[in-house]
Amino acid sequence: MSEHSWIQELLQIGGKDGKFSEKQLKILEAAVEMFAEKGYAATSTSEIAKKAGVAEGTIFRHYKTKKDLLLAIVTPTLFQSVAPFLAKEFVREVFDNEYETYEQFLRAVLANRYAFVKTYLPAIRVLWQELAFHSEIKQCFQRVFVEHVYPKFARIVRHFQEKGELAELPVDSVIRLTITSLAGFLAARFLLLPDHNWDDEAEMERTIRVLMNGLRR
Amino acid sequence: MSEHSWIQELLQIGGKDGKFSEKQLKILEAAVEMFAEKGYAATSTSEIAKKAGVAEGTIFRHYKTKKDLLLAIVTPTLFQSVAPFLAKEFVREVFDNEYETYEQFLRAVLANRYAFVKTYLPAIRVLWQELAFHSEIKQCFQRVFVEHVYPKFARIVRHFQEKGELAELPVDSVIRLTITSLAGFLAARFLLLPDHNWDDEAEMERTIRVLMNGLRR
Amino acid sequence: MSEHSWIQELLQIGGKDGKFSEKQLKILEAAVEMFAEKGYAATSTSEIAKKAGVAEGTIFRHYKTKKDLLLAIVTPTLFQSVAPFLAKEFVREVFDNEYETYEQFLRAVLANRYAFVKTYLPAIRVLWQELAFHSEIKQCFQRVFVEHVYPKFARIVRHFQEKGELAELPVDSVIRLTITSLAGFLAARFLLLPDHNWDDEAEMERTIRVLMNGLRR
Amino acid sequence: MSEHSWIQELLQIGGKDGKFSEKQLKILEAAVEMFAEKGYAATSTSEIAKKAGVAEGTIFRHYKTKKDLLLAIVTPTLFQSVAPFLAKEFVREVFDNEYETYEQFLRAVLANRYAFVKTYLPAIRVLWQELAFHSEIKQCFQRVFVEHVYPKFARIVRHFQEKGELAELPVDSVIRLTITSLAGFLAARFLLLPDHNWDDEAEMERTIRVLMNGLRR
DNA sequence: GATGAATGAGCTTTCATTCAT
DNA sequence: GATGAATGAAAGCTCATTCAT
How large is the C-alpha radius of gyration of chain D? Predict the structure, then answer.
C-alpha cells in the first residue's frame, strides 16, 4: 500500500516497525523534500500539508511544533549517517581480519556510505544545512562523534599504524584526512556537481588510491 | 571613523573606494553576522536594523528587497572566494617559474585562502549556506568556475604533469582531489570544528604532504 | 441568526444560497461600508478586521489579497446594477405589450433601479468610485454593457420608434439621453444631495415627463 | 520657458501672475496626472517627485502635507468649474438680453463648459473623485453652490418662466434637470466613454433640443 | 484521528514627513 | 530654495499553532 518505504527505512533505526501511519509518512516525505529544496526556515507548514495531501492540523497532531518535525527527520538521519561506527560488530570485523588493510577498510566504508547518500540524499541535505543553525543538532552530532565514531576510528587507525601500513602521522590528522577525502568526494558527487558526468567507480578508486598513497608509510 | 573596514574590503572587489556610507556598512555588517548565525530565511529585517542601529526603513532605502541585501553580500564574497584565479597575472606567475612545483603552488594557494577564510569567515558561511537555496547564486558560481577557475586550473595541472611532477591521472580528478583536500581542511578547521585545538601550520603541511604523496608520479 | 441579509442578497446573483459564512458576511459588510466612506485605497485591512470583529488574518483566509476583497464586492454589484437587462424574460415582456409605451417602460425601469440604489447604496458608491481606477472593473463593465445592455436597449428603442412614439433620433443618442436622465436623477438624489428634502415620487414623475416630452415625435 | 501653461491658467483664478516657480508647476502637473490616473490615496509622494523630476523634500517645502497638495489642485478647479456663475457680469448679460432665450443661454453655457472640461480634464477627474471622500471639499462645493450658483441660476430660470418660455415646473427641478442633462453629456463624453466615436456638435445640439422640448411650456 | 477556520504575532515593504547639508 | 538620507509608523500579507467539529 505504502510508497514511502525509503523514508520508513531511514527513520527506523531500531526495530520500531509499523510505527508510522500512512499520513505520517506522507507528511515526513513532503517535509524532507521541501526542507531539502528550500530550507527549513523558508518552508511553511501549509506548503508541507498541501504537498502531503493532509490538513494543516494533521501535522500538529503528530508533531507538536514545526521544529519537532525537523528533528524527527534529522535525528535518525544523523545516526544513520554514522551507522557503521555505531554497529556493535563493526570494530570486531576490522580486528578479526575481515579487512586486512586500511585500504580495504576504506573501500568498504566508502562503498557503504556512497549507497547511503545516494538513497537518502534529501534527508542528508537537510541534516547538513540545518546542522549549522540548530545547536541541539550540532551538539547531538558532536556527542555521537566524540563518544562513538572517534574512539573506534582511532583504534582502527592505530591498529593499521602498528601493522605498519599507515605512516606515523598523528591519529587525529589521519582521521581528518580520511573523512575529508571520502566526504569530499560524496559532497562533490551529490551536492556540488550532481549533474556532472561522473564515472563513480573510477573516481572512488582514485580517491582511495590517492589517499592511501598519501597515508602509507 | 569607520570600524567596518573588513566588510568594506570584502565588498570592494574593484576600486570603488568610498562607495559605502557609514550606515550602509553597519547594515551590511549586521546582516552578515545574523545571516551567518541564523541563516538568511530565519533572520528578520527588523533584527538586522536593530543590530545595525538604524531604522528598518533605512535598509530598504539601500536595498530594495531583503534578497538584494543578501546578494550584495554574497556576490562579492563569491568572487573573492576564487579571486586568485581571477587575477590576470596569476597563471603567468605559475609559468614564469614563480612556482617550480605543484607543491609550491598548492602551498601558496592554501596559505592565501586560509588567510581569506579566516578574515571573512561569516561572509563565507553565508555564501556556503545560501548557495544551496538560491539558483541565481548557484548559477553565478558555476559560471565563474567553468569560465575562469577551471580552465586556468587545468592548464596548471597539465603543466606539472608534463614536467613529470604529477601522475597521469585525469585532469578533472586531480583538480577535484586538490580542491577537496584544501577546502576540506578549511571546512573542518573553520566550520565543523572551529573550537578544536588546531596546530594550523602543521595540519596544512600534512594536508599538502599527503595530497602530494598521492598525486605524485 | 444572521443580520447581513442585504449583503447576502446582493452577492447572490445566482442561486448560491448559504455560500457565505457568518464571518465572511461580517467582513464583506465592514469592507463595503468602509470602502464607501473612505475609498478602497484609504481603507486598511486592519480597520476592516476591527470593524468586522475578526482577526486580520481571517480576511486573507477568505480573500487572497485586498483587491480580491474589492472585486468580491464590486463584481456582483456591477451585474446587479444592470440586472434587468440581463434577465431573459425582460425583452419579451416589452414586446409582449407588457409595456405599451416607452414611457411605461421607463417608469418601470426607474422605479426598479430606484429601489435597487436605495437598498444597495454603499456597494454602488464603491463600484462607481473604483470603476475609474481599476481597469479590470472598467473592462468588465464595458463588456457587459456592449454585449447585454446595449443590444436589448437598442431593440426596445427601435421598437417604440417604429410604433411612432419616439422621434427619429439616432438610437445611440436616445439611449444616452435616457440613461443620463435616469442615472442623473439617481446620482443627484443619492450621491450628490442625499440630505436635500426630496419629493421622490414627484421628481421621478417630472424626470420621466420632461424626458418623454423631449424624445417624443 | 515653461510648458505648464494649462496648469498655471487653471490655478490662477485671480490675477496672481508669476506666483508659481518652474519646480512648483512641475510638481502640480505631475500630481494632477497621477491623482487622476490612480487616485489621491493610491499615489505616493515619491512617485510624484520622480515624475516631476524633483526631490521628495521639495514637495514638502511648497506644500506642508500631501493633502495640502491635493487642495492646491482641487480648490481652484472647483471654483473654475462653476466660474461662469461666479463672474460678476454673468447675470447682467442674461438680463440685458444678451441671451434672448433659455435655449440660447444653455447653448452658451454648454459650449463654455465643454471647452473647460476638455482643457482641464485631469483636474476635473481629481475633483470629482475626491469630492466623495474629503468633507472639506464637499462643504466648500456646497457653500459655493448654495451661495453663488443656485441663487443666480434660480433668478435666470424664473426670468424665462415669467417670459413664458419655460413651463411652470418647480425652479429646483428645472435647475436639477438642466444640470443633469448638461453634466450627463459631459460625463458620458469625457469620463465614461471617451473613446466612443462622438459627433460632439450634433450630440450637444440634441442634448439641448431634447431638454428644451421637455422644459418648454 | 483528522479537519480547516480562526487567530494574532510577526514578516517584508511602503509611506509621508523631517532635517542636516 | 533644493536635496535626499533617514525615520518609524503603518501597510498588506504570511505563518505556526489552536480548537471546535
Answer: 19
- In single-letter form, the type of residue at position D69 comes to L
Count other Cβ atoms within 10 Å, centred on residue A191: 15
Q: How many domains does chain A have?
A: 2
Alpha helices for B87-193 (secondary structure H): 89-95, 102-131, 135-144, 150-162, 171-186
Q: Are residues D169 and D144 in the same domain?
A: yes
Same domain flag for C101 and C165: yes
Residues of chain D in contact with residue C189, where contact means CB-CB under 8 angstroms, are none
Nearest to D58 by CA among D16, D17, D19, D30: D30
Residues 6+ apart with CB under 8 A from B80: B10, B13, B116, B120
Q: How many CB pairs lie under 8 A apart between chains C and D?
A: 83
- Phi/psi of residue B63, each to 5°? -130, 120
Is the domain of A36 the same as that of A122?
no
Other CB atoms within a 10 A radius of the CB of residue B201 amount to 9
DSSP-assigned letter for residue B133: T
Phi and psi of D186, rounded to 5°? -65, -40
Cα distance between residue B106 and residue B110, in whole Å: 6
**CA–CA separation, C126 and C35 (whole Å):** 6
Q: Provide the chain A residues 134-173 that lie in CB contact (below 8 A) with chain B.
A: 169-170, 173
C154-197: pLDDT as tens digits: 999 999 999 999 999 999 999 999 999 999 999 999 999 999 99
Distance of alpha carbon A111 from alpha carbon C166, whole angstroms: 95
Domain boundary residue, one of C72, C90, C107: C72
Same domain, C116 and C66: no
Nearest CA in chain C to D205: C173
**Most distant pair of Cα atoms in chain D: their distance:** 61
A54: alpha, beta or left, given left = phi > 0 and alpha = psi -120 to 50?
beta
Domain that holds residue C34: 6-72
On whether the CB atoms of residues A152 and A109 are closer than 8 A, the answer is no
Closest residue by C-alpha to C1' distance, nucleotide F14: C57
Residue D30's identity, in one-letter code, is A
Distance C40 CA to F13 C1' (A): 17
Q: Using CA atoms, how far apart are residues A15 and D59, in angstroms rounded to an integer?
A: 73
**pTM of the complete model:** 0.90
Please give the residue that has the higher pLDDT: either C1 or D96.
D96
Give the pLDDT confidence of D30-57 residue by residue, as tens digits.
Answer: 999 999 999 999 999 999 999 999 999 9
Question: Domain with D52 in it: what CATH number?
Answer: 1.10.10.60
Question: A139: exposed, middle or buried (C-beta count within 10 Å: 0-12, 13-18, 19+)?
Answer: exposed
Task: Give the H or E element holding residue A210.
Answer: helix A200-215
CA gap D49, D53 in Å, rounded: 6
Please name the chains neighbouring A, where neighbouring means 3+ C-beta pairs under 8 angstroms. Answer: B
Q: What angle do CA A3, A7, A8 make, to 5 degrees?
A: 85
B contact test, residue of A128, A138, A146, A177 with most B CBs within 10 A: A177
Pair (C160, C203) in one structural domain? yes
Question: For cell 470593524, what's the residue?
Answer: C51
Whole-number Å distance between alpha carbons of B21 and C152: 67
* Nearest to A5, CA basis, from A36, A34, A29: A29
User: What is the rounded average pLDDT of the residues D157-169?
Assistant: 93
On the 0-12 / 13-18 / 19+ scale of CB atoms within 10 A, C23 is: middle
Q: What is the pLDDT of residues A9-37, one digit of tens each?
A: 877 765 555 678 888 899 999 999 999 99
Average pLDDT for A164-182: 95
Instruction: Determine the residue type at C50.
Output: K
Rounded CA separation B86/B147 (Å)? 10
In angstroms, rounded to a whole number, what is the distance separating the alpha carbons of residues A150 and A139?
A: 15
The percent of residues in chain B predicted with pLDDT above 90, rounded, is: 79
